Amino acid sequence: xxxxxxxxxxxxxxxxxxxxxxxxxxxxxxxxxxxxxxxxxxxxxxxxxxxxxxxxxxxxxxxxxxxxxxxxxxxxxxxxxxxxxxxxxxxxxxxxxxxxxxxxxxxxxxxxxxxxxxxxxxxxxxxxxxxxxxxxxxxxxxxxxxxxxxxxxxxxxxxxxxx
Length: 163
Ligand code: GDP
Ligand code: MG
Known about the structure:
There is one protein chain. The chain is built from four helices and six strands. It is an alpha/beta fold. It has a single domain (4-162), classed as Rossmann fold (3-Layer(aba) Sandwich). The chain has a six-stranded mixed beta sheet, with helices on both faces. The longest helix has 18 residues, at 65-82. 32% of the residues are buried.
């Protein structure tokens, strides 16, 4: 089976925005019907000639965070079962939440590589507030702006090293 990267995280952190961005380049190159597959939860992408499949677990999002809480174990388990690597996305706008701790605890127990991504770091001024995520007990995170694409290159450079 090919390399599979799952994007997990609370609703509204920016998972689908990153998913669409990762697919964009590939579609622009090989798919003349670009845009048609935007709503799919699985997509093909590549980085430096390495092909991989991306899963947007937002397909299992159900709107509010309350309901999402009940779905967390299922969603994370699906991602862990299916993926070779996991992107755990949080965002600097809302900061670190109880749900984030809960998701991270589940991911930590998997034997899959987990890449911790702090999204919505749209400019240098969000780098400092992002340091609060060290409270999770992590050694490294990637700051990203899925909206502009900045930071995605450094993340993908490291992810494809797993493959
Ligand atoms: P999901 O629920 O995790 O899939 O999140 P979405 O991708 O649907 O994004 C939720 C909201 O955050 C949308 O309004 C996006 O436009 C916005 N968003 C996503 N990424 C960024 C980012 O890097 N910066 C900013 N400022 N907004 C973002
Ligand atoms: Mg989504």
